[in-house]
What does this fold into?
Amino acid sequence: MKSYLLSRRQRHIRAICFHNIGLCKTNGNNKYITDHVAGFVPCFFILESIRGELLYISEVQSDSLQKLHFQELPKLNGASAMIVLKLVGKVPKAVLHSIVSNKNAINNDKWCILSTYTIDLNKLQPICDDVALITSINIPVLELVDGSYTLSKENVKLLKEPTSLHKRNISEIKIKNSLAYSSLLKLNKLLEYSSQVHEEMSELSTRIEDSFPLHKNQHQWYIETVQKSIAALQTKTNKKNIEKSQCEDNGTIHHSKTEISLVSQDESINDDYGSIYSRFVQIKDRLDQLRIKKLYQLIGIFRSTNLFDIGKGYIRFERSSSSDNIIEGLKLKTLHIESLLKEAEESSKQREYMNSQLGYYLLFLHLTATQIFKLPLPYKLMYYGSTSVIESQYPLYFTDSMIPKHQTKLLRAMHYFNADILQIKQFLENYCST
It folds into this structure.
């Protein structure tokens, strides 16, 4: 699954609890609590974003000092991974009188911020409440969708099991494990269902990841590439300037305006134009003749494959005495999908014949486009006999058991194949030889 989806966010928080509620730090004097506080400390917490926006204020709880658990939070829709958590407690006036010098100013209990934490949800350590012991004061434990977590810098001690456990004597009776056939079937169904769920989750996460591209530093690669190109060009320019200065010092370069005559240069260009154009026409004519010859040979090779059959063939070729009309006499047919599907349902022998004909047709078009005319096609053709494919994933053949998934891909392959046929037909109709 993509890392973007595995990151913990605000919306993953389900509940928050605080361990070891206290009005002073760990190294402070606990005498204030033991002497002046009879009962529990009322507390609530404030949840804010990293920008100071208020997200949630909890209810007041005073059930326990060791572990104060608040009710479940409402659904948070934030996508940020950073939060600010503040624990607010009600300090009794007796404690305030013992701390503040001006005792007359303290008349009632006051709400004070006991602890403030800036928490990165992706840098927490997992804990298990049953076997974990937290010794620090006012430490938060966040319950996320995938477990309980606390601060990464907090030291968590594991509770040891009691040493005096009663051990029951092991029975000498040998128990033979057995498994029913119905249980195996259920297990097989569960494994198959879990694999399908995992595959669907992977596809869904891929689509979600593609729809949320990370725009951070998206132009950094282009900036670095342009800077490297500028530096390389500057280096080449300096090198050329050094070589030019060396040649000027040696006297190999003479600046004279009379050495080059613009009039004579234009006349030489005009004289060469006619000869170059005539040679180009001769070369193109030989190339066209070679292409027509190869196409005629290819037609002769594929005549034995029933592609040129009048009734069931896909290609129609009209013989002509002139070699220039070979391209005009070649007619390609597109696939009629509905008629092919009906013919494939007749028998397995008919399906084998159709698969071989489609493979030959694909090979003929592939050789004509790539080897003779060097024509790029919109979809890649791959010849594998009677099991040829298009674009490396769409089969151009029928099977005995046409499942819906294979039939969908087959229809897609036929549409792509017809697009390639139309591309070649359009090229041959507009082909102009010298």
In short: The CA atoms of residues 172 and 244 lie 100 Å apart. Residues 273-429 form a domain with the Actin-binding Protein, T-fimbrin; domain 1 fold (CATH 1.10.418). The longest helix spans residues 262-301. The chain has two domains: 3-158, 273-429.
